[in-house]
Amino acid sequence: MSIAFLVTTLIVVATPGTGVVYTLAAGLSDGRRAGVVAAFGCTLGIVPHMTATITGVAALLHTSAVAFQTLKYLGVAYLAYMAWATLRDRDALVVERAEPRSGTRLVVSGVLINILNPKLTMFFFAFLPQFVSPGEPVTRMLGLSAVFMLATFVVFAVYGILAASMRSQVISRPRVMTWMRRVFAGSFAALGAKLALASR
To answer: Which residues, given as ranges, of the chain have pLDDT below 50?
Structure first.
């Protein structure tokens, strides 16, 4: 494994995107455990993209405009839903919940956020082969993918934990809570718009 791979992976993972926004929101609303669980869900959402790349399904998405557009707009629709739900739910960011969101719900939402992002498959399709020499076994690509997933989980978990540490300062203030809800909703909407305008 090269230093170049590790550096590139950390840069890609740390760059704010849908997963980061979701993990931050989970950490702020439900605390450290929720932030870590959300990070785990987003990491699991990488598995289908990794599998698609290794099995060659990514090549289909790369060559089939219909397949790519279908997955892309499913992702756009889900991000639009996340924006709408975050904006309308006045309990989206609270210090205490009567019924805290379950770990299953947090994981499923995190998985969906990453599954419905065709650009992630395109990233794997373009990124991993650069660090795999011709003739190397599939296990090499699996190993690199595992490192990428580990980095994703660790970085996202740190985001979630840092967000959770700010709960008392942020969430207990109604005005700040309102603006945070708007910021997260706007972020999901902006990321959805960016995905909608993305080309292969």
So the answer is: 91-98
